[in-house]
Amino acid sequence: MFRIEYSRRAKVDVEEIGLRIEADRGESAAAAYLAAMREKIGTLSEMPRRTRERTEIGPGQHALILGPYLVFYKVIGNEVVYIQRVIRGSRPIKAGMLKD
């Protein structure tokens, strides 16, 4: 199994998503959404290469779809799934956005 690691920016992304949901639908809805998000991201530990490589963004780049969000990540060796960003899919995505 792979270990899941989050960049500092990805941690901020997740926190901001939680705050937006909390403002719109309340604290319990935000907590439930974030728990479901972390659970789905956690499934990458078993099969991280199940998504296609997003070569248009960068070598080794992958994205997992989570509702309206894209979780951008790289697989490092046979040990780590490195979550780089969690970005709303409607935003234009540029390679520079994925730097920590």
Characteristic terms for this protein:
4-stranded mixed beta sheet, alpha+beta
Q: What's this, in brief?
A:
This protein has 100 residues and is of the alpha+beta class. It has one domain: YaeB-like fold.
Detailed description of the structure:
The protein has a single domain (3-98), classed as 2-Layer Sandwich (YaeB-like fold). Helices cover 34% and strands 27% of the residues. It has helices at 8-25, 27-42; strands spanning 3-6, 61-66, 69-76, 80-88. The protein has a 4-stranded mixed sheet with strand order 1-4-3-2. The longest helix has 18 residues, at 8-25. The chain is globular, with a radius of gyration of 13 Å. 23% of the residues are buried.
CATH architectural type: 2-Layer Sandwich
Structural class: alpha+beta
- Round the mean pLDDT to the nearest integer and report it: 93
| CA distance, first residue to last residue | 24 Å
CATH topology: YaeB-like fold
Oligomer: single chain
- Total beta-strand segments: 4
Task: Let me know the largest β-sheet.
Answer: 4 strands, mixed
Low-confidence stretches: none
The CATH top-level class label: Alpha Beta
Query: Helix count?
Result: 2
- Gross morphology is globular
Helix percent band: 25-40%
Order of helices and strands: EHHEEE
**Reading side by side through the largest sheet, how are the strands ordered?**
1-4-3-2
Query: What is the CA-based Rg, rounded?
Result: 13 Å
Q: What is the number of domains?
A: 1
The CATH homologous superfamily is termed: RelE-like
> How much beta, percentage-wise?
25-35%
